């Protein structure tokens, strides 16, 4: 039971990390453009921190699961798949963090003549950040010099992430866990993204739950139709 | 400018040049784009009106052209900006050109700017295609579909992640307001048009960069690969061979000039010194390339070839080198000169290369370039290499016999060198050697069984194997006639095992002419493909490949089967073999394998167990 809980927990955390990574990318894309602002910098900072927390949590969880030698072969394969998901997420995050550092350095905000690229994007990114942080509204409380002050933090965090990724590689080897990323078989086939997933979790295979959900919908539909027929009958008979 | 390397190298070279040029242009472009943002002096912006929404910050093509004139020369700069991806067209998004009319463009966001340090990842492209798949509900364009399928195959292990990330990115994008969403879609699409163009994208600039890159990567895939065990073995062999010759790793005689300030070492090793040092001569035995690259060795080889009436080969090779490394201005004349002297029919120093190579070379000479003679040069090089292998020198054998530790005093070296000088003055300066440990030829095989049909399928099939016909007066027949008892005695006693100086001395005392004959005879007895020798030595005697020979072969033709390949046995052959065993050159080349196989079979009933005969055939590259 513990193991199943562990797996589910892992998947949820991985989904959260995935979401934050996606949102972070959207935010970084807005950097340097006319959507850029103090708020964006703060959003980036907060999202980043959230991503890092999730990363650490995921890593601990996954390594503890993988370390367990008593797990079955299918479980092991599943954990390896999750590990590949996790490391891919981290790769994306690392690249985006480095890029955000670069662009933020090139486009400081607190300069007398700031030339942000007029890309056509003018709206704010607050909803994206809210999605990342899983909150309703974002609160902004940063200093006005966040665009420069944050950069040092960012650099430190980038180093942290790189180190963590290296450690991950090493750990996986030290534990003699042969996670061969290329040997992992994807559960999703081509075009899987087209399937609408009613379920929240993406890292689990959605098809089963989608089937279940559609069965529910069909049953609901029939129930409503029957109720309507009954009512109609009653009305006619009145 | 296209450098004349081989195709893969030229691809890489031009790629690196183009990318560095690219880098400089990118930097410039970025500067200009930033300056264009200035509301006062920058480019004029106008809103783009769509059905419901209005999106600001659009530029017309005309304005781009105008502003580019302001910043640099003409329209090409604007086209460059679009081709690189700093500005993208909104309407005709597949054609990356600047149209000087009212068609609209927009600036690209810094994240999507082309930068050297952030290579364009396939993962990102896969995510983009998955997103597009969602948006278009499964209906992708043809090239997108192809790419999608390809990526699905190659990145299958990551596909779960790609789908996950695509869905999340799609949802995150929906969080933004409609105009921003439209802009983002356009931006992303423009980015991928620049970096993953559908094949028929019309770009104003840099088509060659992509093409060069494609050629380069295709050729990298086709490049042959070597197992690391094999390459490490080669490295070890190289180090072991050259270790003694490195003045910093082992003692150099008389002394290392850097340490003792005594320049004798350099004086002794001048490029054109009269007497080469022992170490230098030993170095020549390492490989044919060493011999050729040392000017003194090359001189010796030249003299040897002159004696064998095949000096034109080396002259041709030198001419080719001259062409390769010479100035571009002189190339055409040089190529013509070489053709007239060596290649044309009836040329004064006609070289003997096979028909196909000649054809290719002559064809290439119509448009001469640096490497037009490469094929012929390689051919001749291989020929000369074969020649060099089968000639041994007596002076070298003497040296083999002696103590070769570097603690020899300079006096002994001087003595040796003087002897060598005397010998060389007396004889053909045949310093080309190989390390022969077993030097006793089998006496009774003085009957020249070496002249048989060449096993044509083996070794280099491109070389013409022409049998020697009796009509041709070859210097070897002259040598054969001068069979003398003294020679045979010398052969019999010579070099049984190391440490037999008397035999050496008597061998050393031989007359020069017979020494040449001796060495050539040894060559023949080894049953090497004699016709190749003849072909190189007697280029005038090009007769049709026939089976006539003056002397009856002892054994019938050899079946052309691949002899057992022994790679890297160089250091494994022990000295403890019976003295009747033949001279086997210790080279790890395959051409000698066939010779050994042939000679072994000739021994027939002799039942000599040579150490390597128990080896099983290996296949391939191991």
UniProtKB/TrEMBL annotation, chain A:
UniProt organism field: Oreochromis niloticus (Nile tilapia)
Highest taxon listed in the record's lineage: Eukaryota
InterPro entries attached to this UniProt entry: RGS7BP/RGS9BP
Keywords: Membrane, Signal transduction inhibitor, Transmembrane, Transmembrane helix
GO biological process assignments: negative regulation of signal transduction
Protein name per Swiss-Prot or TrEMBL: Regulator of G protein signaling 9 binding protein
Gene: RGS9BP
Family membership noted in the UniProt record: Belongs to the RGS7BP/RGS9BP family.
Transmembrane segments: 212-236
UniProtKB/TrEMBL annotation, chain B:
RGS domain ranges (all copies): 287-385
The keyword Acyltransferase belongs to this UniProt entry's keyword annotation: no
GO biological process: G protein-coupled receptor signaling pathway; intracellular signal transduction; negative regulation of signal transduction; regulation of G protein-coupled receptor signaling pathway
Keyword vocabulary terms for this entry: Signal transduction inhibitor
GO CC term, one of those recorded: plasma membrane
A single GO molecular function term of this UniProt record: GTPase activator activity
Segments of this protein annotated with the region Disordered: 477-511, 545-564
SUPFAM superfamilies, per database record: Regulator of G-protein signaling, RGS (SSF48097), Transducin (heterotrimeric G protein), gamma chain (SSF48670), Winged helix' DNA-binding domain (SSF46785)
PANTHER family reported for this sequence: LP21163P, REGULATOR OF G-PROTEIN SIGNALING 9
Official protein name in the record: Regulator of G protein signaling 9b
Gene symbol of the encoding locus: rgs9
């Amino acid at each position: 039971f513990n193991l199943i809980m562990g797996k589910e927990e892992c998947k949820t955390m991985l989904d959260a990390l995935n979401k934050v990574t996606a949102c972070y990318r959207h935010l970084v894309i807005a950097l340097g453009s006319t959507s850029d602002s103090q708020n964006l910098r703060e959003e980036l900072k907060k999202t980043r921190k959230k991503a890092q927390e999730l990363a650490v949590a995921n890593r601990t969880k996954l390594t503890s699961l993988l370390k367990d030698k008593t797990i079955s072969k299918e479980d092991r394969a599943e954990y390896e798949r999750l590990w590949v998901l996790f490391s891919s997420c981290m790769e994306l995050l690392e690249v985006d963090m480095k890029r955000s550092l670069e662009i933020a350095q090139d486009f400081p905000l607190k300069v007398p003549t700031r030339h942000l690229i007029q890309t056509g994007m003018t709206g704010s990114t607050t909803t994206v950040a809210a999605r990342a942080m899983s909150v309703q509204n974002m609160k902004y409380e940063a200093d006005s010099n966040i665009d420069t002050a944050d950069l040092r933090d960012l650099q430190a965090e980038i180093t942290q992430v790189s180190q963590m990724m290296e450690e991950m590689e090493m750990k996986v080897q030290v534990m003699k866990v042969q996670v061969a990323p290329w040997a992992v078989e994807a559960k999703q086939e081509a075009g899987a993204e087209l399937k609408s997933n009613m379920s929240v979790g993406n890292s689990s295979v959605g098809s089963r739950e989608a089937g279940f959900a559609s069965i529910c919908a069909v049953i609901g539909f029939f129930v409503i139709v029957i109720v309507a027929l009954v009512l109609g009958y009653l009305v006619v008979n009145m | 400018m296209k450098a004349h390397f081989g195709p893969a190298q030229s691809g890489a070279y031009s790629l690196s040049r183009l990318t560095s040029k690219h880098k400089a242009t990118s930097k410039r472009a970025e500067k200009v784009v930033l300056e264009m943002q200035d509301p006062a002096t920058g480019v004029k912006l106008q809103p783009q009106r769509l059905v419901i929404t209005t999106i600001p910050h659009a530029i017309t093509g005309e304005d781009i052209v105008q502003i580019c004139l302001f910043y640099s020369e003409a329209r090409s700069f604007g086209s460059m900006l679009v081709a690189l991806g700093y500005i993208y067209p909104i309407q005709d998004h597949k054609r990356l050109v600047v149209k000087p009319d009212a068609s609209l463009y927009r600036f690209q966001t810094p994240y999507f700017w082309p930068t050297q340090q952030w290579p364009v990842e396939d993962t990102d492209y896969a995510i983009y295609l998955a997103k597009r798949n969602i948006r278009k509900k499964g209906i992708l364009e043809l090239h997108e579909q192809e790419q999608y399928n390809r990526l699905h195959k190659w990145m299958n292990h990551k596909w779960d992640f790609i789908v996950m990330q695509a869905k999340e990115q799609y949802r995150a994008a929906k969080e933004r307001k409609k105009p921003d969403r439209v802009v983002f879609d356009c931006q992303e699409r423009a980015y991928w048009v620049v970096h993953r163009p559908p094949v028929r994208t019309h770009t104003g600039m840099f088509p060659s960069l992509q093409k060069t890159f494609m050629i380069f990567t295709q050729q990298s895939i086709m490049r042959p690969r070597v197992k690391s065990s094999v390459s490490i073995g080669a490295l070890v062999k190289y180090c072991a061979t050259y270790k003694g010759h490195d003045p910093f790793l082992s003692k150099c005689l008389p002394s290392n000039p850097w340490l003792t300030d005594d320049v004798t070492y350099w004086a002794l090793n001048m490029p054109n010194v009269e007497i080469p040092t022992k170490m230098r001569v030993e170095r020549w035995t390492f490989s044919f390339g060493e011999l050729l690259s040392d000017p003194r060795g090359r001189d010796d080889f030249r003299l040897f070839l002159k004696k064998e009436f095949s000096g034109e080969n080396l002259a041709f090779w030198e001419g080719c080198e001259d062409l390769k490394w010479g100035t571009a201005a002189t190339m055409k004349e040089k190529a013509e000169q070489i053709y007239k002297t060596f290649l044309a029919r009836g040329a004064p120093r006609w070289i003997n290369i096979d028909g196909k190579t000649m054809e290719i070379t002559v064809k290439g000479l119509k448009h001469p370039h640096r490497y037009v003679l490469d094929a012929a040069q390689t051919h001749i090089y291989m020929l000369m290499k074969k020649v060099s292998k089968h000639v041994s020198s007596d002076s070298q054998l003497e040296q083999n016999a002696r103590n070769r530790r570097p603690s020899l005093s300079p006096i002994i070296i001087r003595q040796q060198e003087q002897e060598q000088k005397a010998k060389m003055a007396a004889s053909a300066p045949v310093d080309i050697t190989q390390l022969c440990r077993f030097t006793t030829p089998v006496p009774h095989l003085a009957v020249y069984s070496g002249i048989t049909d060449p096993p044509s399928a083996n070794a280099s099939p491109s070389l013409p194997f022409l049998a020697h016909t009796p009509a041709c007066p070859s210097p070897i027949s002259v040598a054969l006639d001068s069979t003398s008892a003294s020679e045979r005695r010398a052969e019999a006693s010579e070099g049984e095992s190391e440490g037999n100086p008397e035999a050496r001395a008597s061998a050393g005392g031989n007359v020069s002419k017979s020494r040449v004959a001796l060495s050539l005879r040894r060559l023949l007895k080894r049953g090497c493909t004699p016709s190749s020798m003849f072909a190189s030595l007697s280029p005038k005697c090009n007769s049709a490949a026939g089976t006539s020979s003056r002397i009856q072969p002892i054994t019938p033709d050899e079946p052309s089967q691949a002899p057992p390949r022994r790679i890297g046995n160089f250091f494994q052959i022990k000295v403890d073999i019976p003295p009747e065993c033949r001279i086997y050159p210790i080279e790890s080349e395959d051409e000698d394998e066939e010779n050994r196989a042939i000679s072994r079979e000739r021994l027939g009933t002799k039942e000599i167990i040579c150490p390597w005969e128990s080896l099983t055939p290996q296949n391939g590259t191991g």
